[in-house]
Design a protein that fits this description.
mainly alpha, 1 helix, single chain
Length: 75
């Protein structure tokens, strides 16, 4: 018979939500700061690498690690 999961305490849930929201706010501040720097022309501190000089080729078909049936050893 199925048993319901034990509920988390409200204080623990609030604590975890606070940590997640704090990380989101930190990332948002960094994004806004970078956008202001790029739009304002203050790019002396940014290291921007140029794009790749050669075109990127698509990866060949991934090998699954198994040989085709015709090439397998027979035991």
């Amino acid at each position: 018979m199925a048993v319901p999961k034990k509920r988390k305490s409200k204080s623990r849930a609030n604590s975890q939500n606070h940590v997640w929201k704090r990380e989101i706010v930190k990332q948002a501040r960094r994004a806004v700061s970078l956008a202001k720097a790029l739009l304002g022309g203050n790019t002396n501190f940014l290291l921007v690498s140029p794009g790749p000089t050669t075109p990127i080729k698509p990866n060949p078909k991934k090998q699954t690690g198994r040989r085709p049936r015709s090439q397998r050893r027979r035991t």
